[in-house]
Amino acid sequence: MKRDVAYDHRAQQGGLPVLVHYEDGGTSESLLVLTPDQLEWCSYQIGRILELRDKARKGRL
After folding, report:
1. Which site in 9, 11, 16, 46 is 20 to 30 Å from 53, CA atoms measured?
2. Contact of 27 with 19, CB cutoff 8 Å
3. pTM check: above 0.70
4. Model confidence pLDDT, tens digit, residues 25-34
5. Contact (CB, 8 A) for 6 and 18
6. Which residues contact 20 (CB under 8 A, 6 or more apart)?
7. Are 3 and 17 in contact (CB under 8 A)?
8. DSSP helix/strand/coil, 52
């Protein structure tokens, strides 16, 4: 979803709007709430996805 993230300093949680896709084709909007440790882990994992994408693109050239 193209909405901005939010961080709640008091709760020490970040929120990322997401669109959940169901097997039956339906969708619903939700909010993925993460702690700082979870945010760091997701940041690392997303970085890995981007690295793998770049490697795959280079392999196709």
Report:
1. 16
2. yes
3. no
4. 999 999 999 9
5. no
6. 27, 28, 29, 30
7. yes
8. helix
**DSSP letter (8 states) at residue 3:** -
Q: CA 52 to CA 37: how far, in whole Å?
A: 23
| Joined tokens for residue 17 | 């709007």
Helix (H, G, I), strand (E, B) or coil at 6: strand
Strands 6-8 and 27-34: unpaired
Would you state the structure tokens that stand for residue 2, as one six-digit string? 């193209």
At 11 the three-state DSSP class reads coil
Q: What token pair was written down for 4? A: 């901005």
CB hemisphere CA count around 5 (13 angstroms) = 10
Query: By the 8 A CB rule, do 19 and 29 touch?
Result: yes
